[in-house]
Design brief:
35 helices; 61% helix; extended
Length: 740
């Protein structure tokens, strides 16, 4: 009893509302007051219920009572008064401003209404949500309600059909775009994903007279069986038009799969298919000329009856939608999904709007393939980029020839693509928040303030500016400077120095602060010494200098990828390691390769000139002959020297592709191939992955890793190295017959 008295006393001291009013009391009073508040469009009767500040538990009671009232109003079904729901949502907004309920109450009321009404009623109620977007973006509502708004819109979108409720779906997406800022992560496709579920179905076999079964599902529907008229077109096809046969039909609709998933264009086989189909379709478009507005009108006259029925229904349903469409019988802007029947292909080729759809799709794909996108890992080769560029020129040319207003349409499309590249750059930079620039009052020398003269209120603005200048605090100065990306320091000189380059990271990336020399500049003397034909003393070689070697290792770690490649050969000394690395660098540097080729050509020219200048007398030739005969005794020694030189030369040559294939065939017969790959510097998970890619073919897997080993090691991946490794694994028979 004493404990209960203490609890009651605590409640009485902290929350007088809870002491006086219970949940049932508040609930009943709200049910009585709400109709009066809605009728009078004011919150005063509602506020009179409470005598003190509303606590958090009381706000929950208010939320329960208001939502119950809404659900009772929604129980009438089609007879639901939408104006009452809108009035409750508006009243909830006013109560939130008075701190009587939680900020999420307006969105909860609307969510309950959307969940309980038909699609037609939801479309009418959504107009209220759209008209109050400025209210939902206020700081009081945005942060607590943004997740609820997103959930509510997604729930409504899941109920809609993309083909039957296209306009309503677009309104919801436009509302979300207006509600959320540009930097909102939930509305950004940061990693460039594609809607792979948007599949366009078409017949894979040629259409015959009679019945055709079209396998296609839309919005979870069943397979549809459509009867196609067996009557053929009486009007003959003009000679100038291409044959719209099943082959062209298949190629044309197969392009939609590339538009759906452009990533496959970076693979060899799909790329060849895409280029072939695109060239054929563009050639067909070029041959199938349109003759201005007359051709479009003719297409409208030849349209099936259901086109006309749909047009009449649209005119009776909503005149504003019809007025927004082109003035060509309003038949070609309705369907949200392509009709892929083969018998409609000629009508579609004759339709200027349909042609523009396909050409714009192709331009968007070409723009993606050549654009710089942060999360796109693949790139095209130069010859492929040239094809994309030539294709874009062909598409723009076809657009200009497509009536009506072809040239104006091309300019609009180019502007859209340029804006798309600007958005790509914005996303590549991490989607920085877009803010309006701060506009400061401008006081000029002629006495105008913000363009106003003295008699137009400029004196008042001057006095207010001076007054604000005297009373400005340090925090205000720092905040203003931060808004302009500036710094405010202790004195003007420090402020000037810090504002020379406010971005410290950018300042460190300036070219004048880059003190590290390039690989070519630092190692050029060492490369010349290694490839020099003249004998250089060992002490004078740069690779033997400890300081040069230490700095060279630091530069290699910063600039060269060869520094981090795994090598099976042990490192003996620093000069030997530097010599090996310098030889690899010389192959990668074009300037060095050019210089070495010029030196070799100059040396060869000089040798030829020397050989021509020296004319040997007959006596000298006889003496040389005798010297050669006398030197025959030394032939075994020379053979040994030549054999040593040959061995050294073979050691510097990597194994060829034929030798790699032969080794792979022999090694695949042994179960120790995984141990061999580990000796070559590859991990087991890499071997398993490549083996899976090669569909379990061990020989191809081993050949793949031998090729990688040669690319990584260069001259060190030679016959002696692989023979030594195979002997260590007790597999010497794998090299039998390979290097003969």
């Amino acid at each position: 009893m004493a404990a209960a008295a203490v609890v009651n006393q605590t409640v009485n001291n902290t929350s007088p509302v809870l002491q006086i009013m219970s949940h049932d009391t508040i609930f009943n009073k709200i049910q009585e007051v709400l109709p009066d508040c809605i009728a009078a469009d004011e919150v005063k009767p509602f506020l009179e219920i409470f005598d003190a500040k509303v606590s958090e538990p009381i706000k929950l009671y208010v939320e329960t009572a208001v939502r119950y009232y809404v659900m009772q109003s929604l129980s009438n079904g089609n007879d639901t008064d939408l104006s009452k729901i809108m009035a409750v949502a508006k009243l909830s907004t006013a109560l939130t401003r008075k701190d009587v309920c939680l900020p999420t109450l307006p969105m909860l009321v609307l969510s309950d209404a959307f969940d309980s009404m038909t699609v037609q009623q939801c479309e009418r109620l959504f107009s209220f949500v759209e008209s109050n977007v400025a209210v939902w973006k206020e700081p009081l509502f945005f942060t607590p309600c943004k997740n609820q708004v997103l959930r509510m819109c997604n729930d409504v979108l899941r109920r809609l059909s993309r083909s039957q409720n296209t306009i309503f779906c677009g309104r919801i997406l436009l509302f979300l775009a207006r509600f959320f800022p540009f930097s909102e992560r939930s509305g950004l496709n940061l990693i460039s994903e594609f809607n792979l579920e948007n599949i366009t179905t078409y017949t894979s076999s040629e259409v015959e007279d009679g019945m055709e079964v079209t396998q296609g599902k839309e919005e979870g529907g069943d397979d549809e069986v459509k009867e196609i008229s067996a009557e053929k077109e009486d009007s003959p096809v003009k000679d100038s038009k291409p044959a719209l046969d099943h082959t062209l039909y298949t190629k044309f609709w197969a392009l939609q799969d590339f538009f759906r998933n452009p990533i496959q264009c970076y693979q060899d086989a799909p790329w060849q298919m895409f280029t072939t189909y695109t060239n054929d379709v563009l050639e067909a478009f070029s041959s199938f000329k349109l003759e201005g507005d007359n051709s479009v009108a003719a297409t409208a006259d030849k349209a099936p009856q259901f086109y006309t029925d749909i047009t009449v229904e649209m005119q009776n349903h909503d005149d504003t939608i019809v007025d927004a469409l082109p003035d060509v019988k309003k038949i070609d802007q309705y369907f949200a999904k392509f009709l892929t029947n083969q018998r409609l292909l000629e009508l579609q080729f004759s339709d200027s709007n349909f042609r523009r759809y396909v050409l714009v799709q192709l331009l968007i794909l070409c723009n993606y393939l050549t654009a710089v996108i942060r999360f796109k890992l693949e790139t095209l080769e130069e010859i492929e980029k040239c094809w994309v560029h030539s294709t874009e020129l062909k598409v723009f040319s076809l657009m200009k020839e497509t009536p009506p207003d072809g040239e104006q349409f091309v300019e609009i499309v180019k502007k859209i693509l340029r804006r798309e590249n600007l958005w790509n750059d914005w996303k590549n930079n991490g989607c920085p928040e877009i803010k309006k620039p701060v506009i400061h009052p401008l006081v000029t020398s002629n006495g105008t303030v913000n363009g106003k003269l003295e008699g137009e209120g400029a004196e008042e603005e001057k006095s207010s500016i001076a007054k604000r200048g005297k009373k400005r605090k340090l925090g205000d100065l720092v905040r203003e400077a931060d808004s302009r990306n500036k710094f405010v320091m202790a004195n003007p000189e420090m402020t000037r120095l810090w504002n020379i380059c406010p971005d410290n990271v950018q300042a460190t990336q300036q070219k004048k602060r880059n003190f590290i020399p390039s690989l070519e500049d630092y190692f050029m003397r060492a490369i010349d010494q290694i490839h020099s034909t003249e004998e250089i003393p060992t002490a004078d070689k740069l690779v033997n200098d400890g300081n040069f070697g230490w700095r060279g290792l630091r530069i290699l770690a910063c600039r060269s990828p060869h520094f981090f490649t795994h090598s099976t050969a042990p490192i003996a000394t620093l000069p030997e390691y530097l010599t090996t690395m310098i030889k690899k660098l010389a192959k990668d540097l074009p300037a060095v390769q050019l210089k070495l080729q010029q030196q070799a050509a100059a040396a060869a020219t000089k040798a030829k000139q020397t050989a021509k200048a020296e004319s040997k007398p007959a006596a000298e030739e006889e003496m040389e002959t005798q010297a050669d005969e006398a030197a025959a005794v030394c032939e075994p020694v020379e053979d040994e020297v030549e054999e040593e030189d040959t061995t050294e030369h073979v050691e510097l040559n990597p194994i060829t592709e034929q030798q790699q294939e032969a080794l792979a065939a022999n090694i695949a017969k042994n179960d120790k191939y995984k141990i061999l790959t580990k000796k070559l510097g590859f991990k087991d998970d890499e071997v398993d992955y490549i083996l899976e890619q090669k569909t379990g073919n061990v020989q191809q897997c081993i050949a793949h890793f031998l090729k990688l080993w040669v690319e990584n090691e260069g001259d060190e991946a030679n016959q002696d190295s692989i023979t030594y490794i195979l002997e260590g694994l007790k597999m010497p028979e794998a090299a039998t017959g390979v290097f003969e």
